[in-house]
Amino acid sequence: MKRLVMVTTASMLASFALGAFTVQRLNAQSKPPVYFVVENEISDVQGYLKEYAVHARDMIKANGGRYLAAGDATTYVGEPPKSRVAIFVFDDLQQIQTWLNSPDYKALRAVGEKYAKFRNYAVPGVPQHGSDH
User: Fold this and answer.
1) How far apart are CA 78 and CA 64, in angstroms?
2) What count of other Cβ atoms lies within 10 Å of the Cβ of residue 8?
C-alpha cells in the first residue's frame, strides 16, 4: 500500500509538472519575443566599447533584454551591415521602448554618438509550433 501511495504521488507530481510546462510553453508560443538589432558604424572602437557598449549592455539586461549575438557579420547577399552588429531579445516592444526612452539611456546615447553612428531596429519574432523551430 505504501509503495502504491508513493507511485501515485510521484505520478501526480509528474503530471502536474508536465501540465505546468505545457502551459508555460503555450504561453510562450502565444507571444513571441522581439529582437533588437544593432548595426552601429564605429569610428573609435576603444571609446565605444569602454564608454558606451558595456553600460548599454547593463541597461539592456536591467530592462529585460538578453544578449544573443555580437561581432562581425558574414554577408552572403547585398551590402554588408555596419561595423558593429549585435542582437538582443526582449519579451515585448514595451521593454525596448522603456529602455530607449529612459533618461539614463538618453544620456548614455549622447556619449555613444561621439564614437559611432547608430542604426538600431526591432523585429518581431514568429511563433514557434511543434517541429517548425
Assistant:
1) 33
2) 10
| Phi, psi of 42, rounded to the nearest 5 degrees | -95, 130
In single-letter form, the type of residue at position 23 comes to: V
Q: The domain containing residue 72 runs over which residues?
A: 32-125
Same domain, 38 and 99: yes
Residues 41 and 22 in one domain: no
Q: Does residue 129 contact residue 25 with C-beta atoms inside 8 Å?
A: no
Name the E strands within 46-110: 66-71, 84-90
Cβ count within 10 A of residue 56: 20
pLDDT tens digits, one per residue of 79-121: 888 778 999 999 999 999 999 999 999 999 999 999 999 999 9
Strand ranges, E, within the chain? 34-42, 66-71, 84-90, 116-117, 120-124
What is the per-residue pLDDT across 26-84, written as a single tens digit (0 to 9) for each?
555 578 999 999 999 999 999 999 999 999 999 999 999 999 998 888 999 998 887 78
